[in-house]
Amino acid sequence: MAKLVSKTYGEALFDLALEDGTLTTIIEEVNVVKEAMKKNPDLLKLLSHPKIKKEEKISVIENIFKGRVSDSLVGFLVIVVQKDRYDDLDGIFEYFVAKVREYKNIGVASITSAVELAEEQKKHIEQRLLQTTKYSQFELTFHVDKSLIGGLVIRIGDRVVDSSIKTKLQMLAKDLRNATV
């Protein structure tokens, strides 16, 4: 049910931003709202509190965000509060951001290496990913995991390319255990 709610509201926000031509602005504002909610967990508690009237919750939303984000996003947040869907805001925003990335053909990749990579290596990896995928741009996050020994593990969505020494050694050990002499 929560996924359906996230999809429905996320689509609505996406369509609104696309129609208004404010996709870039709205995605930045969504990040501002997400950050504000992350820094102030009491805001979500207030919105979830059953004894606080919707009118008061709407007033709080308007007081906090009006003038800081567009009227379109404030109006969207008001609708979310009116429909008691504030618990789904994270999912709605995640769906919206994913939809924008899809629309703009932006891939998201997580790269894990055994050592910290130099900027030149990071750029080379990005160029190779752009050449070998359908994406025109990437948002990359780099991580270090010394247990890999060497090589890389690249995750794009649900796809994983694991060329780490650790995995190759594990596969070799498995093959040796299964070998008959």
Automatic annotation (TrEMBL):
Key word Translocase present: no
Membrane topology qualifier: Peripheral membrane protein
InterPro entries, alphabetized: ATP_synth_OSCP/delta_N_sf, ATPase_OSCP/dsu
Keywords, ordered alphabetically: ATP synthesis, Cell membrane, CF(1), Hydrogen ion transport, Ion transport, Membrane, Transport
GO molecular function, one term: proton-transporting ATP synthase activity, rotational mechanism
Localisation per UniProt entry: Cell membrane; Membrane
This protein's record includes keyword Membrane: yes
Main location (coarse class): membrane
Gene3D superfamilies referenced in this protein's UniProt entry, alphabetically: N-terminal domain of the delta subunit of the F1F0-ATP synthase
Gene Ontology cellular-component annotations: plasma membrane; proton-transporting ATP synthase complex
SUPFAM superfamilies: N-terminal domain of the delta subunit of the F1F0-ATP synthase
Similarity-based family: Belongs to the ATPase delta chain family.
Function according to Swiss-Prot or TrEMBL: F(1)F(0) ATP synthase produces ATP from ADP in the presence of a proton or sodium gradient. F-type ATPases consist of two structural domains, F(1) containing the extramembraneous catalytic core and F(0) containing the membrane proton channel, linked together by a central stalk and a peripheral stalk. During catalysis, ATP synthesis in the catalytic domain of F(1) is coupled via a rotary mechanism of the central stalk subunits to proton translocation.
PANTHER family named among the record's database cross-references: ATP SYNTHASE DELTA CHAIN
Record-given protein name: ATP synthase subunit delta
